[in-house]
Amino acid sequence: MTEVRVPTLGESVTEATVATWFKKPGDAVAVDEMLCELETDKVTVEVPSPVAGTLSDIVAAEGDTVGVDALLANIAEGAAAEAAPKAAAPAAAAPASGAGSVDVMVPTLGESVTEATVSTWFKKTGDAVAQDEMLCELETDKVSVEVPAPAAGTLGEILAPEGATVQAGGKLAVIAVGEGATAAAAPAQTQYDTPPAGNAGPGKDIKDGPAAEKAMAEAGISRDKVTGSGRDGRATKADVAAAVAAAATAPQPAAPAAAPRAPVAAEDAAREERVKMTRLRQTIARRLKDAQNTAAILTTYNEVDMTEVMALRNEYKDLFEKKHGVKLGFMSFFTKACCHALKEVPEVNAEIDGTDIVYKNFVHMGIAAGTPQGLVVPVIRDADSMSFADIEKAIAEKGRRARDGKLSMAEMQGGTFTISNGGVYGSLMSSPILNPPQSGILGMHKIQDRPMVVGGQIVIRPMMYLALSYDHRIVDGKGAVTFLVRVKEALEDPRRLLMDL
């Protein structure tokens, strides 16, 4: 007997509600097949089966509140375990493709991520593939995931074409191995097959997920009030929540989510190109707008004379690289200066949770990085206890992984403060937007020689504008200005960092 327990629910989340059971006692289950869905106040978590077998009994029923590691159900193994995978797998269309085939499945996508979009297939049906050779790339709202071939053989069929939305644990393709590799497997109808022409929208044959249906029933909202964002127009639980929120905040007839597009002349329309937003870009857009709607964002500015930092860097950059194997950049100075200032103004390193203020006695520094797919913010954990060399190594390594699309979900979660460097693109001044639930973000800009008055004389100095955007609900103007002044002081006289002044 194998126990099914509540997984880790996320930072500071200790309990959840059992929303939906997808199986009932006596049902055969396969390894990693979804058993139930848990709902917290922040995310929805699907619980996969740890083994193949038969669902013996359900301990926590729908609606029950459960804690982390609480017992949800029991799975009986043995003879039933042999039948479960066979029952879960689609039947082959031809006898030759059954025994000599290996399924290509959607890998684990990360905590709270349940679906992805197939962005690119590197192979086509009939191509020979080697074991661990990359077959396709999936795109979630956070990261890109490459899917390797589980075995060598011939790509028999692709079940999820480019653009299809797939669930964690779903089937992507079939590889013919052994004798079956001599011919591609016959196509089989699956949940990911492209729908027939004329069935692009939701209809009587398109069924919403059980979690969405339950959410609509509990909220008392009709299906026509919910705009489905899933495949073929299916509604998700998030769509239901959005519809309920829209109804609650709009007693008068709701305005369209976006202003209607202005008419376009026919000759101009012929020269336009319409491209669907990637999941990452949609998430960026949603989060940035949520930040504006939720936080009381205010920005304060200052400028810093970079003379001393530049001189120190030029003097020691060769020795630094020779000893530590990484170049000495400006980001380590700014990271150190921010960690120093956050100790004096802790509210900039805090967050609001309901009616509480949560102060962080550590600094997990987010470093915004631009990638071909969009802006991501990898997090350097415990940056306040790291040396200049450790910070530079971490920034270089995470920047490289960000550009390659290799960052994991864990590497982009838990940040307490963020630094964004628009100067690398030539920005002279900007107002960064908060990265919720953080209360502060520092914007760096271009270093530019400007005439300054120093000691009664006009001299040319390398100057940079700094911008601190902060949540005015928790950070007062005095604290924001003090933070920015402390960063300025530390950069204009780096010795203050050594003396902790």
Automatic annotation (TrEMBL):
Gene3D superfamilies recorded for this chain?
A: 2.40.50.100, Chloramphenicol acetyltransferase-like domain (3.30.559.10), E3-binding domain (4.10.320.10)
- Ranges annotated as biased composition (Basic and acidic residues): 221-234
SUPFAM superfamilies in the cross-refs: CoA-dependent acyltransferases, Peripheral subunit-binding domain of 2-oxo acid dehydrogenase complex, Single hybrid motif
- Location of the region described as Disordered in the Swiss-Prot/TrEMBL record: 186-234
- Chemical reaction(s) catalysed: N(6)-[(R)-dihydrolipoyl]-L-lysyl-[protein] + succinyl-CoA = N(6)-[(R)-S(8)-succinyldihydrolipoyl]-L-lysyl-[protein] + CoA
Q: Which Pfam families match?
A: 2-oxoacid_dh, Biotin_lipoyl, E3_binding
Alphabetized, the UniProt keywords read: Acyltransferase, Lipoyl, Transferase, Tricarboxylic acid cycle
What cellular-component terms does GO give this entry? cytosol; oxoglutarate dehydrogenase complex
Which residue stretches does the UniProt record annotate as biased composition, category Low complexity? 186-197
Give the Enzyme Commission number.
2.3.1.61
**MF (Gene Ontology):** dihydrolipoyllysine-residue succinyltransferase activity
Q: Where is the Lipoyl-binding domain?
A: 1-76, 101-176
Cofactor dependence is on:
(R)-lipoate
The record's annotation in PROSITE patterns points to: BIOTINYL_LIPOYL (PS50968), PSBD (PS51826)
Q: In which pathway does it act?
A: Amino-acid degradation; L-lysine degradation via saccharopine pathway; glutaryl-CoA from L-lysine: step 6/6
Instruction: Please state every residue range assigned to the domain named Peripheral subunit-binding (PSBD).
Output: 207-244
Subunit: Forms a 24-polypeptide structural core with octahedral symmetry. Part of the 2-oxoglutarate dehydrogenase (OGDH) complex composed of E1 (2-oxoglutarate dehydrogenase), E2 (dihydrolipoamide succinyltransferase) and E3 (dihydrolipoamide dehydrogenase); the complex contains multiple copies of the three enzymatic components (E1, E2 and E3).
* Family (UniProt): Belongs to the 2-oxoacid dehydrogenase family.
The protein's name is Dihydrolipoyllysine-residue succinyltransferase component of 2-oxoglutarate dehydrogenase complex
